[in-house]
Design a protein that fits this description.
eight-stranded parallel β-barrel, 36% helix, single chain, 326 residues, 10 helices, alpha/beta, TIM Barrel
Amino acid sequence: MDTNEDRMQYCKLGRSQLQVSSIIMGTFQAGKDKWVGIDDAHSEAAIHAALDSGVTTYDTAEAYGNGHAECILGKALAHVRQHVVLATKISPNRLGFDQVLNACHNSMKRLQTDYIDLYQIHWPTASFGGRAVPIEETMSAMNKLKQQGKIRAIGVSNFNRSQLEAALEFGSVVSLQPPYSLFWRQIESETMPYCLDNDIGILAYSPMAQGLLTGRFGPNHIFEDGDHRSKNKLFQPYFALKVRQALDRLQPVASDLGLTLAQLSLAWVISHPGICAIAGARNAEQAMMNARAGDVCLSPETVSRMAEIGRLVTDHLDEDPVMWLT
């Protein structure tokens, strides 16, 4: 039976001592770069609304607006720093030993903190044409930061299973941040089982498929110039009919539970053991609505039914884990 508890769910992140909320506030939008119509005041209000709704964990990256999202997050949460978990990420072009140390220092300054709870490698080395750096060198710097107390735990993002295994040879990695949603499920074959077997937490980004699973975007939607979602594979015309068929079948499920499509999609992601959902929001209302998904417990039957519906889309995807067209 589906039940609706009156509180946010929390869990320990992998083998770390970090307690994280099942819904994590993502701040990609707050960086403004690659998005349109983002207002700093609205971003701050969204962060405060998430906090008031039980969200204790916030994810950002130095790459989001060249540090702008970190600045917004640091300002918004400075008064409650000791009560929240801050996660940020280092870019793939800064993975040399000294670069990692310097990048961490700069992120701490922007976040207005003297420690980072979860410091993550944003993309594997040499992504997007950068210089290749041995994972041993990068992890050595991460380990030093941890020994110094500047970071509490190490995570990686966008790593496949073999890349994750390589990182684990040189230190404790407590989390993986991959794209994962009803419409994007490549990690289910190898990476998710590996993480579950090795007590590695999964922080799923784009759990609403960058808004597609909200049902707000019709098949002929045209994004404004500067909105990176125009390059998202799932928003391409080829998938329009498949997406609409899936959403039409998901809507009654959401309605029966008194949920929005967005909340249903988030609840499906966090129904999986060891997985939290990183949900972005451009205003306070979206942040509050997202947080309510942290109260939802779906029955196994509903989870399976939704997974089957999602295959209307995922069965037509290849194995490339990158969501955007190059």
